[in-house]
Amino acid sequence: MKIAIVNCLKANGVCTGAACLEAMNRRTKSFAAYEDRDVQLCAFMRCSGCGNMVETDEGMAEKMERLLSMKPDAVHFGKCTEKDGQLCETLRSLKEKLERAGISIVMGTH
C-alpha cells in the first residue's frame, strides 16, 4: 500500500516530520489501520503556502502532478493542516482534487 503525507508550510519552522514518520512506522494514531499491512511512504510534501493554489501556482501544480503520478492509495493530511478543525483554501482545494482522483484522504497523522 502506498501512502503520502501532506503538511502545512507554516509548520516548517518547528516541524521535522519526525512525529508523522514515527506514527507511520509504529502504526499508531491515524496509521493504526495499517497495523498488519506493508506500507510504502511514496511522498512527504508541504503545500507551497497559503493562497498558492494548484490552479495558479506552478510549484503546487508540479507537486500535485508528481503526487498523482505516484498513485498513492491514501494521503494523510498532517495534524498541522487543520486550524480549528478547518483546512485553509489551498489545502482544501488540494484535498478535493485528490478525492476527485479517487485517492482516499485521512485527516491526521500523529
Automatic annotation (TrEMBL):
The organism's place on the tree of life at top rank: Bacteria
Q: Which Pfam families match?
A: CGGC (PF08821)
| InterPro entries, alphabetized | CGGC_dom
Q: Which residues form the CGGC domain?
A: 2-110
- The protein's name is CGGC domain-containing protein
Upper taxonomic lineage: Bacteria, Bacillati, Bacillota, Clostridia, Lachnospirales
